[in-house]
Amino acid sequence: MEIASLGADQVEYSDINLEPSTTYSYRVLAYNNQASSAYSNEATATTNPIQGGGGTYEAEHYTSQSGNTVFEHLDASNDQAVDFGGNGAWIEWNNVNEGAGYAQLTFRYYNGSSASRPCQVIVNGTLQATAQMAPSGGWATAGFESVVVVLNEGANAIRFMASTNAGGPNVDKMDVVVDNIYKPVVPPIISFIAPDSNALFTEGNVIALSAEASDEDGSVSKVVFAYQENGGLTMLAELTNAPFTFEWENAEIGAYKVYAIAVDNEGNKSADSITIAVQEKHT
Description:
Blueprint: E1 23-26, E2 43-46, E3 54-58, E4 64-66, E5 69-72, E6 80-83, E7 90-96, E8 101-111, E9 119-123, E10 126-131, E11 138-151, E12 156-162, E13 170-178, E14 189-194, E15 200-202, E16 207-214, E17 220-229, E18 232-239, E19 244-248, E20 254-264, E21 269-279
Parallel strand pairs: 15-21
Antiparallel strand pairs: 1-2, 3-13, 4-7, 5-6, 6-13, 7-12, 8-11, 8-13, 9-10, 9-12, 14-16, 16-19, 17-18, 17-20, 20-21
């Protein structure tokens, strides 16, 4: 089953409509203007279970709501679900008391439309996340989406609010697990200092590459400079200490898309890119 088709230069995709405690297999097929490649090797991933130490909050057992209807749904965990109204409709549980820390909220829902129905997750009056609520495959087929928020000790108020004119999905329940393993991934930050994008160089001149990188919750392990070539990346330099600079010599005539890629101590990556050109040297 095809789950996504990405455009040119897109190399990342997040599959969010996944069920807990389930193993999924993925393969990739690449296309160019002439033909397609063979399938890649198969990669598998297993989603985390909904563990102990948390609680389940049925959607129909909200403590307050606006613009919604409770209805019978035989696939729902309690044979009932909440049919969200239009933009701004919400349900709220003001009795979420599972302990303090990073919490994973997993929503079980139904979205039989062809488009996502994003909903804001507002915790104690502060917007902390947006759940995309992608199409689940039918109004009787459940989807799952998880977000990470921070909860306080004692009772917390969690409001789940539709944020598009199409309204929200039909919601079955919310499972809450408080465990700091759900601390969100914070990728490093990187940006080119030099050269400017669209800079023009003459054949034989040195191209000085410079970038700055930082990491909010750890450290930058390395910065890689590379350029795009034949659908892949050709590495120019790998640097493990600041300043992250490199002098590119003997660049051939042509246009280049150059990347600066930062990798942090947990293996998370971010990239910045520029486009430059090298012209023929005239004598």
